[in-house]
Design brief:
With 197 residues, the protein is α+β, with helices and mostly antiparallel strands. Helix content is 58%, strand content 7%. It is rod-shaped and about 180 Å long. Bound molecules: zinc ion (2 copies).
């Protein structure tokens, strides 16, 4: 049987105390190391969580940015379609005005056609306002120009005196000849109504 070494025989009571103290310091150090690694683990977890949160936030920020852009685009689109509607309305109103003007123009053209036979056949612009003794008529300006060339009718060649040229008065068909003749000077009245009427 091998003899066992009993340390107690070599250690005094004081030595025993140092041994205990060393053991407790080692325990405390081990405990600290455990706690430190636990804290380190928690810190790593927190960092991971924080990064995930930051990614979420960034994602949310981008989403909001996109939504703002979409909202702005929608507003612009709304404004543009409002403007387009306004343009369409203006266009419609202009088209109506145009139609209205065209129909008024047509009425005016027909009115002018009605009095076409009253236009001077020499200049085709002015109305007949003078009559020669032969009965042929023209505007005074044309007759005055004609008189410079000779005192005979441009149509039938019958000669006339300047003093024989009579004034013609255009009258509305509803106006009575009596009313016009009260003037005394009036000699002839051409009705505004066309010959067929
Ligand atoms: Zn004329
Ligand atoms: Zn004549």
């Amino acid at each position: 049987m091998q003899p066992t070494l009993n340390l107690d025989h070599f250690l005094t009571d004081d030595d025993c105390d140092i041994g205990d103290e060393y053991a407790s310091v080692v325990d405390a150090a081990l405990d600290m190391r455990r706690k430190f690694s636990s804290v380190l683990r928690q810190a790593r977890q927190l960092k991971t969580t924080l990064q995930a949160k930051q990614a979420d936030l960034e994602h949310e920020r981008q989403r909001l940015e996109l939504r703002t852009i979409a909202e702005t685009s929608r507003n612009k689109l709304r404004q543009q379609s409002r403007r387009l509607r306004q343009c369409k309305d203006d266009n419609r109103s202009l088209r109506l005005q145009n139609q209205e003007l065209a129909s008024r123009l047509e009425v005016a053209r027909k009115e002018l056609e009605k009095v076409d036979h009253l236009r001077c056949t020499l200049c085709t612009v002015a109305f007949k306002d003078a009559m020669l003794p032969c009965g042929h008529t023209a505007c005074r300006v044309c007759l005055d120009l004609w008189i410079g060339q000779g005192n005979d009718c441009p149509w039938c060649r019958r000669s006339f005196e300047v003093g024989d040229i009579r004034d013609l008065y255009l009258a509305d068909p509803s106006a009575t000849a009596d009313a016009l003749e009260e003037d005394g000077d009036v000699t002839d009245v051409i009705s505004l109504a066309s010959d067929s009427e």
